[in-house]
Design brief:
The chain is α/β, with parallel strands linked by helices and 251 residues long. The protein folds into two domains: 117 residues, Rossmann fold (3-Layer(aba) Sandwich), CATH 3.40.50.12500; 101 residues, Rossmann fold, CATH 3.40.50. It is built from twelve helices and eight strands. It has a four-stranded parallel sheet with strand order 2-1-3-4, sandwiched between helices.
């Protein structure tokens, strides 16, 4: 896959995108930077972290996503004059989609920047691709997976098949290999979903998604990729230079 720098700049002022990411995430920054490279220097992406180390359905885990630490991290990103801020994590998939709606409202009010999130971007794409049957791939435990499945059922999207790695330590999600991500996607594809979602921004799906799309003939929507897609849409940036990374960018 070749990388092409986007050179026909129309403004001397680059678009600065901010992303909030879990402290233990090692995938978001390098993979986002690699995908966004064709847009540089017209677009640059900047990151802020807050502490998230474990994903589970208990109060201690849920408290990691309280507003105060997220907004404190956003304040530091706002110092860089970013024009869009995204929550680059998938907690709303199990905590409820409304949690990201409230978070994005708070981010806009706090910083004045546009705002989106991984899950809000995914849901926008599911609507765009008219997805009613979805294959789900995550690194999470079975109970977290069931909560995600129930949340999508509540908005009329059936999870036709799922695979999960049964992990809770957030750092360990990045240790699931690309080969394993591909295998899980191929397995859920057997039940003929309209699309597949790789839900976790610390999972190594961005570079295999487009390859799988060509193989399977359906959208394969990776979390790191669709968060970047959502930010570019919020910022009014043409996504076609990133079409090598999947169908979403060529729409």
């Amino acid at each position: 896959m070749g990388f092409r720098m986007h050179t026909d700049r129309t403004s001397s002022h680059p678009t600065l995108i901010g992303m909030l990411t879990p402290s233990s995430n090692t995938v978001v920054e390098p993979y986002t930077a690699a995908m966004a490279w064709p847009l540089f220097p017209e677009v640059s992406v900047h990151f802020g972290r807050f502490r998230v180390t474990r994903i589970a359905l208990d109060e201690g885990s849920n408290q990691q996503f309280a507003l105060d630490p997220i907004l404190a991290a956003a304040d530091l990103l706002a110092d860089a004059n970013v024009t869009t801020i995204a929550w680059n994590g998938t907690s709303a998939s199990w905590l409820g989609f409304d949690t990201d709606e409230r978070l994005c409202t708070a981010l806009r009010e706090r910083t004045g920047a546009k705002s989106t999130s991984a899950i809000l971007s995914l849901n926008r794409l599911l609507e765009k691709f008219n997805v009613r049957k979805l294959g789900l791939v995550t690194p999470y435990t079975a109970d977290v997976q069931k909560r995600i499945i129930a949340n999508y059922a509540s908005v009329g999207i059936e999870i036709t098949s799922e695979r999960h790695a049964d992990l809770a330590d957030n750092f360990s999600f990045a240790e699931v290999s690309e080969a394993d991500v591909e295998r899980m996607c191929r397995e859920v594809a057997r039940d003929k979903p309209d699309a597949i979602a790789i839900v976790c921004t610390n999972m190594r799906g961005p570079f295999v998604a487009a390859k799988l799309e060509r193989e399977l003939g359906i959208p394969v929507l990776d979390s790191v990729a669709f968060t970047l897609w959502g930010c570019l849409k919020e910022s009014g940036i043409d996504t076609l230079p990133l079409s090598d990374f999947g169908m979403m960018f060529s729409q």
